[in-house]
Amino acid sequence: MVVPWCDQLRVLCHPSVGGFWSHCGLNSTSEAAFAGVAVLTFPIFWDQVTNSKMVVEDWKMGWKVKRGLGDEEVLVGREEIKEVVRRFMDEEREEVRGMRRRAGEVSGVRRRAVGKGGSSYEHIEAFLNDLCQSNARDPDNNRARGKFSSSMLQYMNM
């Protein structure tokens, strides 16, 4: 079935997902990290290249599916893609187990940050409190806005 849109984060969080082929856009990279899914990166331009480097070299939770020839990147052919996917999905390989383990660790860091008491949660809560405590007026009824309720952040607790 082909659908025009799906909830990529929900798909990536499903336990049957063994890996993710990604161009490494910021949202896709963030969602893969949050879900704890190892990534075959396929960056094309701009921030995708930096995000791919972060996944492969810094977080060590993926492989890059391009090979360099001098200053140019050359796309790999179908046989090479088949081979890299086969190796990537081989859970008997220590390198693959390590990559998946590392993806799980990165996921834990991301989830703790957005959970109650985490750094992202606290920063968003502080920002919203500052916003609500400002002299801003509610344009609908010209009243001062009230204090922010942390229950507004419940959507962040996945």
Automatic annotation (TrEMBL):
Transmembrane segments: none annotated. It comes from the Eukaryota. CDD domains: GT1_Gtf-like. Keywords: Glycosyltransferase, Transferase. One of its GO terms (molecular function) is UDP-glucosyltransferase activity. Pfam families: UDPGT (PF00201). Belongs to the UDP-glycosyltransferase family. PANTHER family: GLYCOSYLTRANSFERASE, UDP-GLYCOSYLTRANSFERASE 87A1. This is Uncharacterized protein. The lineage of its organism: Eukaryota, Viridiplantae, Streptophyta, Embryophyta, Tracheophyta.
